[in-house]
Structures are given as structure tokens and as C-alpha cells.
Amino acid sequence: MSVLIYNNSEELFHDLSEYILNIATQSILEKGAFNFVLTGGNSPKKLYEILATTYKDKIDWSKVFFFFGDERNVMPNHESYNGLMAKRSILEPLEIAEDHIFYLNTALEPDQAAIAYEESIKSHFKGTEIAFDLILLGMGDDAHTASLFPETSILSNTEATIASVYVEKLSTYRISFTAPLINKAKNVAFLVFGESKAEAVQHVLSEEEKNTHLYPSQLIAPINGTLTWFLDEQAAGLIEN
Description:
The chain has 241 residues and is α/β, with parallel strands linked by helices. The chain has six helices and nine strands. Helices cover 29% and strands 20% of the residues. The mean pLDDT is 96.
């Protein structure tokens, strides 16, 4: 695991963009495709905009396939639908072909949406093991990542799959990659910035404080891949040196 700390979010976004560029270039060189899992929420919007402008001509975007690590149980035209933010900030600006974007079909019931999404991903991987080239993750101030929220049933799921989960504190369902599926990725990167995340970062990265039901981000530990934390100084403010 690598923990990278930056003076500000601008420096963080620059280095994270370079990191994505390097993985994308290598993946395309090796197998002609880059399987990239996006994270939702507001945190990555600026990153996506940088990739769609500064990096528009640095990556062969026609060979990139986009996925989502989790989705809210809302219709695709809803403002909180993760796919909509990505569509506006990176997918449409780069004119990504529709068959290179794997949206979650939230018109289905959550359980069915999870099953359908997994089937579409299995079809893309053509029977080989589902191991994404890069999964980008965010983290909430409660230490959740993707839709792996504290003390929810999905945290006990030991299958590398996609599942629906009821998040009681939000009074809604979510659809999410399970931790075992995330941990099959070749590379996983956390994007975390801002003072509001400092306490969660401290708990998650603590060597002494292991409690995955309280701090679900601790579940993320790629089996044969890399794990990199991209933090700004504010988010890293409570980490002990």
C-alpha cells in the first residue's frame, strides 16, 4: 500500500491523472483495452474534467471501457445518479461510444439491477476472471467506500460479485461491488481530500484499529494488485507520522 500526500487538491489531481495515464497506456499496450471503474459523488468531478481536457489526446479513449463501482437506486436522469455526473464531466466530452460504457440499469429492482450488471460485466470479460485494470474509489466521512457502508449486510459478503444493499441511515437501497470483487483489481486508488475526511482516514489507516464493520474502507486490500491512497494535507492531517 502506498499513501501519497499532497499540498493541495490541484497537485493531487495532477498526479492522479498521471497515474491513470500510466495504467491506461500500459493496459492498452498489453491487451488493447483499459477497463476503468469510476467512482461517484462530487469528489471526482474535477478529476474527470481534467481527464476530458488536458488528457484528451494523451490516452486512446476509444480503447477505454468504463464501469461504476456502485450506484444509487434512482433513475438515470436523477441528479444523484453517479452515471449522470460521469456522463456530463467525462463521457460526453470525450465522445465515448455507448458500448464502451457500462451503466447500471436502475429501472430494475435493486437485486435485479445487481444481477443484470454482473451479467453484462461477465459478458465483457468473455468468461475470464473479472479483474479490472483500475478501480477508482472515494471515501465518505463515515469511512464507507463504493456503497460499503458501516454495519451493513454487504460487508459480510465473501463473493466477488455485485450486490444490492439497504442502507438504513439513508433509508434507501444501493447497488455495489463487494469488497472481494474490488480486491481482484490490478490497481485500486482512493481519492480523498478535505478536512471532513481526516478522522475517517485516521481510523482506516490505523494499524491498531482494525474494525471493518465500522470502517469498511479497511476491507480494501487487493490480492494481486496495488493499492494507492491519494490524499491532500487536510485529509491526512490526523495520520500519525
